[in-house]
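Retry 2 of 3 after timeout on previous attempt. Resubmitting structure tokens to design endpoint.
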């Protein structure tokens, strides 16, 4: 069985580590009324894992390759920002 969960992401920072159910699929991210929310689809009762996300502005150089990032969304706060999940093996402790 699966469920859609919503996570309140506070505070929102340039680099964020979130504990999400293992294998959770990111459905949406929304910044509204000063709050930020992440919706995920996950298996009921799944163990949690740490996952890393970064926020960057347009034209910002990133210390990752395109294969180490998964695009989530683009949104506007005080400027245009882009949210990515970092999926590089070194960060996850894999070899």
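Retry 2 succeeded. Sequence:
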């Amino acid at each position: 069985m699966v469920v859609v969960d919503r996570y309140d992401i506070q505070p929102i920072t340039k680099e964020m580590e979130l504990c999400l159910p293992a294998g959770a699929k990111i459905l949406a991210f929304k910044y509204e009324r000063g709050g930020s929310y992440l919706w995920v689809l996950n298996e009921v009762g799944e163990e949690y894992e740490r996952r890393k996300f970064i926020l960057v502005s347009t034209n910002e150089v990133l210390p990752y390759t395109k294969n180490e990032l998964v695009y989530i969304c683009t949104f506007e706060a005080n400027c245009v920002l882009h949210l990515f999940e970092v999926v590089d093996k070194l960060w996850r402790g894999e070899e």
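Attempt log closed. The chain has a mean pLDDT of 88.
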